[in-house]
Write a structure and sequence with these properties.
Blueprint (H helix, E strand, L loop, with lengths): L7 E5 L2 E4 L4 E2 L9 E6 L8 H15 L4 E3 L8 E5 L8 E7 L3 E8 L5 H16 L39 H11 L3
Parallel strand pairs: 4-5, 4-6, 6-8
Antiparallel strand pairs: 1-2, 1-3, 7-8
């Protein structure tokens, strides 16, 4: 039996309130691949490639086209924006909709380098897709201090290829079950 739990929420005033007694956060399959748009401040423009790499990683690892970049706001369902560093944390995700997500916003806040940008974007894309936090892999803690000391630093030049940046098998299985067309 897997220890994986999906991200769950109750919906109030068209916003997801993340609670364990809520419903799984699952997008309507007809919206896939989820179109995302980058709206980063000039100071975070360097992170655009890391965000794109994070989306490609989810598509590759899941074997599904889950995310795709679009050039304008009209088509987008997922908005990658610059957040306030004073809000705390490297990034945050919010979903909007009634009982299922209709849009999501990912705020990238204080990021230390491209590897941290990739990891934060990959982690938040996991939340966008309906994955909850866990103790390891892409959905593990964002703070390097909270994970096992044996894992490589996010500033390691091989950061895209180390196991802790990859989703867990149970997460990928869940995404395939929920989003693969039948």
């Amino acid at each position: 039996m897997s220890d994986y739990q999906p991200l769950t929420a109750i919906w109030t005033n068209r916003q997801a309130i993340y609670r364990p007694d809520g419903l799984p956060v699952v997008w309507n399959r007809c919206l896939l691949p989820l179109p995302f748009v980058l709206q980063l401040d000039a100071g975070q423009a360097a992170y655009a490639a890391a965000v794109r790499d994070a989306a490609k990683m989810w598509n590759r690892e899941a074997g599904l086209e889950l995310l795709r970049e679009v050039p304008d706001l009209v088509e987008a369902r997922v908005f990658i924006v610059t957040g306030s560093a004073s809000a705390g944390g490297a990034a945050a995700t919010t979903h909007s909709g009634d009982v299922v997500p209709e849009s999501a916003t990912v705020e990238l806040r204080a990021l230390g380098g491209l590897s941290e940008g990739f990891f934060a974007a990959a982690h938040e894309f996991g939340h966008v897709l309906g994955l909850a936090d866990n103790n390891w892999g892409t959905m593990g803690p964002l703070a390097a201090e909270s994970g096992p000391r044996s894992r490589p630093s996010r500033r390691d030049h091989h950061w895209k290829n180390v196991p802790w940046t990859r989703p867990r098998a149970a997460e990928l299985e869940y995404l395939r079950c929920v989003y693969a067309s039948r």
